[in-house]
Design a protein that fits this description.
This protein is of the alpha/beta class and 302 residues long. It folds into 2 domains: 200 residues, P-loop containing nucleotide triphosphate hydrolases (Rossmann fold, 3-Layer(aba) Sandwich); 90 residues, no CATH class. It is built from 14 helices and 6 strands. Helix 7 links the parallel strand 4 and strand 5. Helix 9 packs across helix 11 and helix 9 crosses helix 12. The radius of gyration is 21 Å and the shape is elongated.
Length: 302
């Protein structure tokens, strides 16, 4: 596979397709503020000052359990960043990192080097502030001390070395690049990679307040097709459902609404007749199912 095929998206912002992503994720506002401010400040300082002064690599890490909105926040960042840049423009590039890790001996290092030091910088050579998303970065920056014999440790070492070298080179040569990486398993990340991270932001599973907001938002948006659901979104008893779901990931919380529509044939025919009782039954099922998965596998994976 050619490295150019590993770029899923390269989009100039603002772009209406990305406009709603930032607001769609329900997390503490401080998380969004810190990510946006970190990107803006990094780009500003690295434009004016050398690395020896700032020690900034232009690298952010979003970590936490699956389904909490890390990837969506990263996708929405460039659109928000375009509002505060000098030119009111920014670029978003999304990479598929899994395609880089070839099983063929020696290919991972070559692909990583070509993509990160040639192809991506080439896309950002015009100087436009550019956010690059490396999702599930543990597939690229594997902890070298943990590399198993089955995983071809020599190739893992070389690929991780290539990532680190590319980050160092781009820090100096392309101060307009800001890397956003995500990880569900920070323990699998190489220590040298972590030392290069400028800002590490935990994106946790939502608490009761966040879960309630997700349920309300989901029902309100569904009411565009089924108006009766707007009343359900405002029902005070919805908080009882939120208490049952608190601590589960946001993706699972959203899916609970459609899960509730499976409780009765009537709600399959007309989702607008959904009730709090339907939601409560579904929430109990989801909670029980999650407990089974955690008990069986240790760490829940969505």
């Amino acid at each position: 596979m050619d490295v150019s095929e590993m770029v899923r998206h390269s989009v100039e912002m603002p772009d209406k397709r990305y406009e709603a992503l930032w607001d769609s994720i329900v997390v503490d506002q401080s998380i969004k503020d810190r990510l946006l401010r970190s990107a803006g400040l990094s780009l500003r300082l690295r434009e004016e000052l050398p690395f020896e002064v700032t020690a900034l690599h232009g690298l952010a890490l979003l970590y936490g359990p699956p389904g909490t909105g890390k990837t969506t926040l990263a996708r929405g960042l460039a659109h928000q960043l375009s509002k505060i840049t000098k030119t009111r423009k920014a670029r978003f590039i999304e990479v598929n990192p899994h395609g880089l890790m070839s099983a063929e001996h020696g290919q991972s290092q070559r692909k990583v080097t070509e993509l990160l030091t040639q192809h991506l910088p080439g896309l950002a050579a015009d100087g436009m502030p550019t956010v690059v998303l490396l999702d599930e970065v543990e597939s690229m920056a594997v902890a070298r001390s943990e590399a198993s014999l089955a995983a071809n440790p020599a190739d893992v070492h070389r690929a991780t070395d290539a990532v680190l070298s590319a980050l160092d080179a781009n820090t100096v040569d392309y101060p307009n690049l800001f890397w956003v990486t995500t990880s569900n398993f920070t323990g699998a990340l190489d220590g040298a990679f972590l030392s290069r991270v400028d800002v590490a932001i935990n994106v946790p599973a939502p608490d009761v307040h966040g879960t309630l907001a997700i349920l309300k938002t989901t029902l309100t948006k569904m009411s565009s097709a089924f108006p009766e659901l707007a009343k359900l979104a405002a029902d005070g008893d919805l908080k009882r459902v939120a208490h049952e779901l608190a601590g589960l990931d946001g993706r699972r919380v959203r899916k609970t609404v459609s899960e509730a529509m499976l409780v009765r044939i009537e709600t399959v025919i007309d989702p607008g007749v959904l009730t709090i009782d339907d939601l409560w039954i579904a929430a109990s099922r989801v909670r029980q199912s999650d407990s089974v998965q955690v008990g069986a596998g240790g760490e829940h994976a969505a």
